[in-house]
Fold:
Amino acid sequence: QVQLVESGGGLVKPGGSLKLSCAASGFALDNYVIGWFRQSPGKEREGVSCISSTDDSTYYADSVKGRFTISRDNAKNTVYLQMHSLKPEATAVYYCAATDSLDYTLRHYLRLLREYRIWGQGTQVTVSS
Structure:
């Protein structure tokens, strides 16, 4: 069964850190662009970061640049999102998704949600004091 499972969410105070994991089963992540997205109540799902399938280059939304890091461990078939200096506005459900599309440069995959055909169920991140 092809699936993605996110984990690592939780409650953290402003300024704190969390590391999210996105574990794949049924397929090899290293052949896919992997994106992290988030959605808070009443808002559209937005791209946070993505990592290339070819050279592990990365791209970040301006709002998280310098504080979040995406990485992959192909041996564990897992992609991570390390989040530092978290702000209350980061509160959302975080999703990972996979696409084998190679039609666009990496930065476009941050907003082209329609290109992703495999989605996880999401993990809640709450930043609050």
